[in-house]
Amino acid sequence: MDYSPFECQFAFTKGQSERMRLTIENIRESLLQSEGCLSPCLSTISGSISAPTEAVTGEKVNLSFSGAGATTYVWTVNGTQIGTSATPEYVFTAPGTYTITLVAGNQDANCIYKTKHTITVKCNILADFNPIVSVVKEGESIRFTSTSAGVKDYVWKIDGTPAGSGPSLDYTFTQTRDYLVQLQVSNEYCSQIKTGKVSVQNACGDSIWQQYYTTEKGGLRLVFREGSMGSYLGTGLFIWDPKSAAIKFNSKHEILWSKYFDVDGSCEGVNINDGSSIFNIQDFSDNKEYLIKLDELGIMQWKKEFIFAKKGINSDRISYFIDDVLVGQSGHIIRMSKDGIIKWSKIYPWF
Question: 331 exposed, middle or buried (CB, 10 Å; 0-12, 13-18, 19+)?
Answer without folding.
Answer: middle
